[in-house]
Amino acid sequence: YSNFENVVDPDLIDSCIYEMNAVQNRYKFLLKQAKAANITINSQIT
Q: What is the pTM of this model?
């Protein structure tokens, strides 16, 4: 999201939005894959 602080041109803003949507969709895909494979993480901090 920090890119929004650095751009003012409408085309660059559109580019940032496109990139954020792509990253969010990739995250959703990988999360579904991890759930399907029963992958979990240990959230304990030692």
A: 0.70
How big is the CA angle at 21 (ends 16 and 22), to the nearest 5 degrees?
Answer: 100
Domain map of the chain by residue range?
1-26
CA 16 vs CA 8, 13, 28, 40: distances in Å: 11, 5, 18, 31
The structure tokens listed for 37 are: 């494979």
Question: Averaged over 18-24, what is the pLDDT?
Answer: 95
Residues 18-44 as b/e (b if ≥16 CB within 10 A, e otherwise) read eeeeeeeeeeeeeeeeeeeeeeeeeee
Closest CA to 24 of 16, 14, 13: 16
